[in-house]
């Protein structure tokens, strides 16, 4: 977790423009823009990503922003070898898996909204312009956290 949250924070702060003012419940409305958003995310050093890989990185951006907001709302993260989960009391939700399912068409917009409503996430705003969570940070070794081709799924990376 010492790497996870700072990595998410850096990723979200660097590319927060498309997240500004977006509520969790409206993430499905932005899925059609992921390819365009992904094209504005810098490729990891030494890699040239395909359009599909860039689209997946944009999905990861939205998921990371929601995951950060969830931690601010009292959700906990458990990261161990082979385990990654975000939970609060007896509820569990993975924004990374859910956004991936939206992107793949395995979850409908209505299912997403219902899940957000039931978990109390609907009104969470992913990023605001003057938000300290998305304040710009110095460039560091973040590129690999969401790097496609690293052998890890960038949407489900803990």
What does this protein structure show overall?
- This protein is mainly alpha-helical.
- The protein contains five helices and three strands, in the order αααβββαα.
- It has helices at about 5-15, 35-40, 50-70, 95-105, 110-120; strands at about 75-80, 85-90, 90.
- A three-stranded antiparallel β-sheet has the order 1-2-3, with helices on one face.
- β2 (about 85-90) and β3 form a beta hairpin.
- About 35% of the residues are buried.
Summarize the structure.
By secondary structure, the protein is mainly alpha-helical. The chain has five helices and three strands, in the order H-H-H-E-E-E-H-H.
**Major beta-sheet overview:** 3 strands, antiparallel
- Oligomer state equals single chain
Shape estimate: globular
The helix count comes to 5
SSE string: HHHEEEHH
Low-confidence runs of at least 5 consecutive residues: 134-158
Order of strands across the widest beta sheet?
1-2-3
Whole-number count of domains:
1
Helical content, roughly?
25-40%
Distance between the first and last residues' Cα: 8 Å
**Structural class assignment:** mainly alpha
Blueprint (SSEs and pairs):
Layout: H1 4-14, H2 34-39, H3 51-72, E1 76-80, E2 83-88, E3 91-92, H4 95-104, H5 109-119
Antiparallel strand pairs: 1-2, 2-3
